[in-house]
Each structure stands twice: as structure tokens, then as C-alpha cells.
């Protein structure tokens, strides 16, 4: 197991390097300069500025310098935000986005699993149909539509909840639900299928033949095994949430990383683009890694395979 | 000898889209203390449904017990609530399933799977239950039980898994063990080992066993009595000797003739021609009549009563009526040598 983790971490570092390189070079293909009011600058001024920021050097040289700084934890300075360090800007905005994404994920897991388990246990009853209607709505209604509908109904029309911003618990409710509804639906659907499948397995009958109570059979035997396929979809779902966050932040004017990222791309703010991409990639790779570890926790067959490889 | 389990006129049906499937149609059986009773019969004859009915493990709401009684320990199991039944399952009546590859939970250590029943029924603490689980693994012949107890099913071979399943079933010293084709999924050498183990443990624990099997060799090796099942009914019961040497029902003759080792001269297997009855539309007469070489008019119209041939042998066949013509069993059986 320990060896497996070390191996994985090495792969993760290699992956990160490739991502950094690819982003760095393709970013330089974007037209324009990173300077504010660039239309008003003369070519001579631009040349001067390029020289000042080292942008006149050959690309490989710039890349080596960037990676060197990166290894020291220095992501450079933003062009757009008056010379503030990229790490500082990300440090300020990332927690907001992470908060939103995390809360949506928790909502998705808690309610999705609950609905899926109930639907699977009470197959072909009102409970089942009810849960699956929720699931279908959740899968087919995009989060931005749901966000705007709720924003209009609960905030604009009835003033029950704040319309926008991110200032206290009440501000979280609408964005969290809007972002979490899709995951609720997806997880519920998968969990229902998994439960129905698991409940038909011989070992469930065997567990009942031991004289275990229904709750014991359901939770100790059925739910645990049904979680295995769920772990597979949680990874991609977390990644989806990262992009979903951008949209929801936009609708509710939440000062997260998403809004920041879009601006940086439009303005060729190279250090910000790099910083945000690196941050996203790290988050992504770590999520995938955690999901793989979770797999091992839930399914002993995989734990062993991982340990041996 | 004293009966430990008694089934009286049991009827079990499944409600399906195609209508009612009458899987069990008036089964009478008794299981005596300490004996092994084999239930034999073709696929679909209702053997598994009968055994699941005893455990009350039939799928709900598709299956229902239409009528009948199952007496165990002074209680009619068909009348017990689910809660009361949970106290009996795994402690007084246990079950071994057919396929050890699928009957263990892949995500739970086998120790835990053995301990569950012990903790529930015998109220053992964690440490005691673990100790007992290790003893049980040792008892069923799993080497190095202290280490094995922590492992998961995928770390065991098929034969070893079936030993674990047996350990689970016997954990609480049940009075009755139902084994539904316990060796069908295993290869031949392992089969013999598992059967020996079951016999050995039965002697140690004085368990009564209901053994469901297709394999008449297994019957000869394990059982004292046999019930022959066909079309949801028991058509003949008797001691092993009676069923192998003096069978009276043409279906039993058919089963015995299809036993491979009786035909050392010809390689051909005498399968019974025809197919079992459709239980969603069961015949009113003897279910075997359409395939029976000796069928008479009456067989198609009326189900025969049991004729008591000895204290232990009972057969439901019109040929045993005094008005029926004398029919000799096929030569192969008359010559004997079956079930040596
Ligand atoms: N869940 C079910 N729904 C509908 N019919 C069923 C169901 N389970 C069993 N049956 C029917 O009940 C009858 C008896 O089945 P059972 O499983 O007891 O046969 P069996 O004697 O155990 O056969 P095998 O030797 O193949 O195990 C069959 O006709 C089968 O179609
Ligand atoms: Mg069966």
C-alpha cells in the first residue's frame, strides 16, 4: 500500500509537469498582450514592457524561469490586479469556490444516496417513483436554469433569501442547492440501480439466512456493496462541479475563482492563467487520487491488487 | 424416531405476470432427529422453493404460502412473524447455498461474516465471537485460522469458501441444516471433501440435514432417507435402500436409469423423455403421467393417493392400485446394483 501511494504521487508530479508545460506554451499562442489599455500603447512601449517583464526572451528560457519560480512556490504577479501576487489572489478567492463546491458535493452525496437507497429498497412503490422523478428533473434541468428560477422565486419575488453575494449562511442556500441538485439526481439514479442489483445477490439471501434484521442486512451488506459503483462516478462528478462552480458564481455574483479565471483569459494575464490552471489541475488530480484510495477502502479486492502492483 | 421438522400439505405459489405458478403443490415431509433426508428431482420440481419456505426466505411479494403447516419445535413456522423467524434463522435452522463464489459478501472479512450470527443469536462479545470464529474455521478444516479469519472471500478458493459457508451455517449449532446442492458448483475431488466434512460435523453436532441434490451418488453416500419430488409434489419417499432397490414409482425408475454408472455396457444415458409440467397450468392428475410409459386413463384425470408400502416407504402411483395391471420395473433396476 505505501509503495503504491508513493508510485501514485510520482505519477501525479509528472502529470503536473506536463500540464504546466502544455498550458504555458499554448497560452503564448493567444493573440494580444497582457497589458491594460494595450490599444493605446505604441509598439515601442510594448517592446519596453516586454523587456521589463522578460517576455522578449525565447519561450524555453521563459519556461525554465517560470518552473524555477514555481518550485519555490512563486506563481508570479498579476498584470491586471496591479501587481498583486497570484498566490494571494487565489488564496483569497479559492476558499469561496471550494466552499461552494464542497457543500454542493455533500448535498449531492447525502440526498442522492438517501433517495437511491429508499428507491432501491422500495422498488416500484410511490417512494421509488417519487425519487426517480426527482432524479430525472435533476439530470435534465441544467444548474443555471435552476439557479435562475430559484433566484427569481425565492429571492426576487418573495425575499425569503438573499439574491446574490456570499456573506453568511443564508447566502449559501440557493447556490448550494442549484449546484448540488444535479449530483443528487445522478447519485440517486446510480445508487438505485446498484441497490436493486445488490439486493438480488446470493450473499444478501445468505445474510438473511443468518437471521440478521432487515436494517442490518440493508446497511451492513447491501449499502456497502452498492457504494462501489458510486465511487466511480464521484470523481468525474467532483470535476464537473469545479466547472459548475464557474456558472453558479456568475449568476449569484459570488467572488470565487471562476469569475477571476474568465477575466484572466480575456486579458492575457499570463501568471493568473497559469496559476489558476495549476490550481485546477492539482485539485483534479488530488480528487482522482482520493477516489482511488476510497475504492480500496470500500472494496477489499482492489485494496489487495493495489498493494501488490 | 422423533420428528424434528414436519411439513404438512404445503402449497406455495408465485404470482407472476403470466399468472399463478404453483411451485409447491401439497408437499408432506418429515425430518427425523439426526438423519439426513435427501430431496431429489429434476430441475423445477420445487426443491429449492420448499427449502426456502422452511426458512421463510421466499421473495416477497411474488411468493406466498397458500396453505399448509411447517412444524418445528412445537411452532408452526408458517405462522411466525418476520421478527420471530429471525430468531430461528441461523440459530436453529441454517442453510448452505449452492454457489460459494457468490454467497459470501465480497466486502466483509470472513471473520465478521461468521461473527454476525454468533453476536446476534448467542449474544457474544466481539472478542468471544472472534475466538469462536477461529475455532469454527479450524473445525471446518481451514488451515491457519488465526490469519485467515481476517481475510476476504476473494482470498479463498471455491472449496475453502464452501467450508466458510458451512462454518457460518453451523456457527450456532443449528438443529436443522438445509443444504441446497452444496457441492454442485465445486469440482469432483473438492465435492467429496465437502461431503465428508458435512458428515463428520453432523456426527459431532447431531444436526439433522435436508440435502437437496441432483446427484444420486451423493444421496447414496450421505442420506438415510430420500424424497423424490416431481411437479411440486413428493411422488415417493423411502429409505435409501427402498428407493434404490425397491422403487415403485415410474419417475423414480426413470431417475435411477439416468444414473450414469448403471450403464457400464452402453455409454448412453437414459434421460427421461419429455419435459416437466408447466406449473402455471398444472395437470389435474399425476404430473408425471404425460411422460410415464405406463400411464393409464386414470393417471391423467386423478392424482393418486399415497400407498404405504412399508413403515418408511410411501408412493403415489396408480400402478399400486389393486385394479391396475402388474408392471415390472425396468430391468436395470430389477437386476439391482443401483446405489452400491
Ligand atoms: N421467483 C420466482 N418467480 C416465479 N416462479 C418461480 C420463482 N422461483 C421459482 N419459481 C418456479 O418454481 C418452480 C420450482 O422451482 P425450484 O427453484 O424450487 O426448482 P428446483 O427443484 O430447486 O430446481 P433446480 O434443481 O433447478 O434447482 C419452478 O417451476 C420455477 O419456475
Ligand atoms: Mg434449486
Could you explain how this protein is built, in words?
The complex is a heterodimer of chains A (309) and B (340). With 309 residues, chain A is mostly helical. In chain A, 78% of the residues lie in helices and 0% in strands. Chain A has helices at 2-27, 43-52, 59-71, 86-121, 126-140, 143-157, 169-199, 202-209, 214-251, 257-266, 270-298, 300-308. In chain A, helix 6 (143-157) packs across helix 9. Chain B folds into two domains: 3-223, Rossmann fold, CATH 3.40.50; 229-320, no CATH class. The longest helix of chain B is centred in the middle third of the chain and has 18 residues, at 188-205. Chain B is globular, with a radius of gyration of 21 Å. Chain A binds chain B through residues 201-203, 205-214, 216, 220-221, 224-225, 228, 298-301, 304, and chain B through 55, 57, 82, 86-91, 94-95, 97, 99, 102-109, 116-117, 120-121, 152, 154-155, 165, 168-169. Adenosine-5'-triphosphate binds next to strand 1, strand 2 and helix 1 of chain B.
The major pleated sheet of chain A works out as:
none
By CATH, the superfamily of the domain at 92-255 and 288-308 in chain A comes out as: MetI-like
Strand order of the largest sheet of chain B: 6-7-8-3-9-10-12-11
Radius of gyration of chain B (Å)? 21 Å
Q: Give the biggest beta sheet of chain B.
A: 8 strands, mixed
Strand content of chain B: 15-25%
Structural Rg of chain A: 24 Å
Separate helix tally of chain A: 12
Mean pLDDT of chain A: 89
CATH 2nd-level architecture of the domain at 92-255 and 288-308 in chain A: Orthogonal Bundle
Distance between the termini of chain A: 9 Å
Which residues of chain B form runs of ≥5 with pLDDT under 50?
A: none
Which molecules are bound in this entry? adenosine-5'-triphosphate, magnesium ion
β-strand percent of chain A reads: under 5%
What shape does the CA trace of chain B take? globular
Q: Give me the CATH architecture of the largest domain in chain B, please.
A: 3-Layer(aba) Sandwich
Determine and state the CATH class of the largest domain in chain B. Alpha Beta
Amino acid at each position: 500500500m505505501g509503495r503504491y501511494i508513493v508510485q501514485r504521487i510520482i505519477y501525479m508530479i509528472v502529470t503536473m509537469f506536463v500540464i504546466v508545460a502544455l498550458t504555458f506554451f499554448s497560452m503564448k499562442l493567444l493573440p494580444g498582450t497582457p497589458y491594460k489599455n494595450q490599444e493605446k500603447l505604441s509598439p515601442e512601449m510594448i517592446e519596453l514592457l516586454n523587456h521589463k517583464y522578460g517576455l522578449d526572451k525565447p519561450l524555453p528560457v521563459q519556461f525554465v524561469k517560470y518552473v524555477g519560480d514555481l518550485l519555490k512556490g512563486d506563481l508570479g504577479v498579476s498584470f491586471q490586479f496591479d501587481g498583486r501576487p497570484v498566490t494571494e489572489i487565489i488564496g483569497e478567492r479559492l476558499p469561496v469556490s471550494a466552499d461552494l463546491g464542497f457543500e454542493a458535493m455533500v448535498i449531492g452525496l447525502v440526498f442522492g444516496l438517501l433517495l437511491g437507497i429508499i428507491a432501491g429498497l422500495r422498488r416500484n412503490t410511490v417512494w421509488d417513483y417519487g425519487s426517480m422523478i426527482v432524479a430525472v428533473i435533476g439530470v435534465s434541468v441544467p444548474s443555471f436554469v435552476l439557479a435562475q428560477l430559484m433566484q427569481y422565486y425565492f429571492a426576487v419575488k418573495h425575499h425569503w433569501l438573499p439574491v446574490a453575494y456570499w456573506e453568511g449562511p443564508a447566502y449559501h442556500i440557493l447556490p448550494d442547492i442549484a449546484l448540488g441538485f444535479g449530483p443528487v439526481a445522478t447519485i440517486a439514479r446510480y445508487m438505485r440501480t446498484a441497490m436493486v442489483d445488490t439486493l438480488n445477490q446470493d450473499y444478501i439471501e445468505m445474510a438473511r439466512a443468518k437471521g440478521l434484521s432487515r436494517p442490518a442486512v440493508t446497511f451492513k451488506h447491501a449499502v456497502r456493496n452498492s457504494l462501489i459503483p458510486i465511487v466511480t462516478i464521484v470523481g468525474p462528478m467532483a470535476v464537473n462541479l469545479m466547472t459548475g462552480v464557474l456558472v453558479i458564481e456568475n449568476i449569484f455574483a459570488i467572488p470565487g475563482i471562476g469569475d477571476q479565471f474568465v477575466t484572466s483569459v480575456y486579458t492575457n494575464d499570463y501568471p493568473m492563467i497559469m496559476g489558476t490552471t495549476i490550481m485546477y489541475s492539482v485539485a483534479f488530480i488530488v480528487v482522482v487520487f482520493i477516489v482511488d484510495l476510497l475504492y480500496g477502502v470500500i472494496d477489499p479486492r482492489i485494496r489487495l491488487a493495489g498493494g501488490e502492483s | 424416531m422423533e420428528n424434528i421438522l414436519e411439513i404438512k400439505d404445503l402449497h406455495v405459489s408465485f404470482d407472476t405476470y403470466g399468472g399463478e405458478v404453483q411451485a409447491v403443490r401439497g408437499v408432506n415431509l418429515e425430518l427425523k432427529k439426526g438423519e439426513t433426508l435427501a430431496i431429489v428431482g429434476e430441475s423445477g420440481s420445487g426443491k429449492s422453493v420448499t427449502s426456502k419456505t422452511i426458512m421463510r426466505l421466499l421473495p416477497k411479494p411474488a411468493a406466498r404460502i397458500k396453505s399448509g403447516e411447517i412444524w418445528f419445535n412445537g411452532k408452526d413456522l408458517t405462522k411466525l412473524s418476520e421478527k420471530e423467524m429471525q430468531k430461528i434463522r441461523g440459530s436453529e435452522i441454517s442453510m448452505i447455498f449452492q454457489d460459494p463464489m457468490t454467497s459470501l459478501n465480497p466486502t466483509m472479512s470472513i471473520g465478521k461474516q461468521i461473527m454476525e450470527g454468533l453476536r446476534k443469536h448467542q449474544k457474544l462479545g466481539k472478542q468471544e465471537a472472534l475466538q469462536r470464529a477461529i475455532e469454527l474455521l479450524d473445525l471446518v478444516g481451514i488451515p491457519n485460522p488465526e490469519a485467515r479469519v481476517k481475510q476476504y472471500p476473494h482470498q479463498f478458493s471455491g472449496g475453502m469458501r464452501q467450508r466458510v459457508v458451512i462454518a457460518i451455517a453451523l456457527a450456532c449449532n443449528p438443529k436443522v441444516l438445509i443444504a441446497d446442492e452444496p457441492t454442485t458448483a465445486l469440482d469432483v475431488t473438492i465435492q467429496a471433501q465437502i461431503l465428508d466434512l458435512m458428515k463428520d460435523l453432523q456426527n459431532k453436532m447431531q444436526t439433522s440435514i435436508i440435502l437437496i441434490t441432483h446427484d444420486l451418488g451423493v444421496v447414496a453416500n450421505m442420506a438415510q432417507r430420500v424424497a423424490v419430488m416431481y411437479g411440486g409434489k413428493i411422488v415417493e419417499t423411502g429409505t435409501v435402500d427402498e428407493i434404490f432397490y425397491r422403487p415403485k414409482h415410474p419417475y423414480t425408475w426413470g431417475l435411477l436409469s439416468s444414473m450414469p454408472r448403471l450403464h457400464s455396457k452402453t455409454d448412453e444415458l437414459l434421460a427421461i423423455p419429455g419435459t416437466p409440467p408447466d406449473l402455471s397450468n398444472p395437470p389435474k392428475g399425476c404430473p408425471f403421467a404425460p411422460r410415464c410409459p405406463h400411464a393409464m386413463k386414470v393417471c391423467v384425470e386423478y392424482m393418486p393417493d399415497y400407498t404405504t408400502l412399508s413403515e418408511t416407504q410411501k408412493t403415489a402411483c396408480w400402478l399400486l392400485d389393486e385394479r391396475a395391471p402388474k408392471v415390472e420395473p425396468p430391468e436395470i433396476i430389477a437386476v439391482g446394483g443401483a446405489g452400491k
